[in-house]
Design a protein that fits this description.
The chain contains 4 helices and 14 strands. By secondary structure, the chain is α+β, with helices and mostly antiparallel strands. The chain folds into 2 domains: 157 residues, Beta Complex (Beta-clip-like), CATH 2.170.270; 54 residues, no CATH class. The strands form 6 sheets. Strands 3-9-8 form a 3-stranded antiparallel beta sheet, with helices on one face. The chain is globular and about 60 Å long.
């Protein structure tokens, strides 16, 4: 159990509340659980009570039995999922005060044209239905992309409607995302081959607006060995 979060009963069932303040860009909690392909998902499951989150084109995260199973959807969320490699975390997209319910917009990771459900989040901007990201109004899509909470496979699924280059303000989470990817690559690659792994491109420059893509430069001792 995470000491910074508390599961409480709400009018919509259980929800997760902050027991301390979170700043914008701060990682709140990693999401855990067994990985599934779409074909491996249960044939019959409760769309509300069962917790399967799409995190890739054909990858789903199953229930963990922990607090990450109980974050509710909101059409006006204060957090969003950040997917980097095989790691999925929930990050604050605005300041979250102690006592606030922590919510995220389920549509930001959805690109399946299958699962949908009615929304009862109760916000003034409630869309009434939770559907794939591509069905969101363009203004909402662009705002979520700027916040860095729309994964690449989702962007790919609706590229025809978002084919313009989107430049977003500098995000304080970018250095953290690079460090996490750097660690993952260092663990996966041959240490005898790697000289260094650096963050480069526009997202590596503090304060510079950029496309929300983390570019990584891998420096190797031998290009011939690296190609093998």
């Amino acid at each position: 159990m995470n000491d910074s979060l508390l599961i409480k009963q709400t009018k919509h069932g259980k929800g997760v509340f902050a027991t301390r303040d979170f700043s914008s860009g701060e990682i709140i909690i990693p999401f855990k659980g067994k990985l599934f392909t779409r074909a491996e998902l249960p044939k019959h499951y409760d769309q509300v009570e069962d917790h399967y989150v799409q995190i890739g084109e054909d990858r789903y995260l199953g229930p963990s039995g922990d607090v990450d199973d109980f974050f509710n959807h909101s059409c006006v969320p204060n957090s969003g999922l950040v997917i980097s490699g095989k790691k999925t975390s929930l990050g604050a997209i605005k300041k979250i005060d102690k006592g606030d319910e922590v919510t995220w917009d389920y549509s930001t990771t959805m690109a399946e044209d299958e699962w949908e459900m009615d929304c009862k989040c109760g916000s003034k901007q409630c869309r009434g239905r939770i559907r794939d990201f591509k069905y969101l109004p363009a203004t909402i899509q662009k705002r979520y992309v700027k916040l860095g909470i729309v994964p690449k496979y989702v962007l790919k699924s609706c590229q025809s409607s978002m084919d313009e280059v989107i430049i977003v303000p500098s995000n304080p989470a970018w250095p953290f995302l690079f460090k996490r990817e750097q660690k993952r690559l260092l663990n996966a690659l041959d240490p005898q081959l790697i000289v260094g792994i650096e963050h480069f491109g526009s997202t590596a420059i503090p304060g510079l607006s950029a496309k929300p893509i983390i570019d990584v430069l891998i420096i190797v001792r031998s290009l011939a060995r690296a190609k093998k």
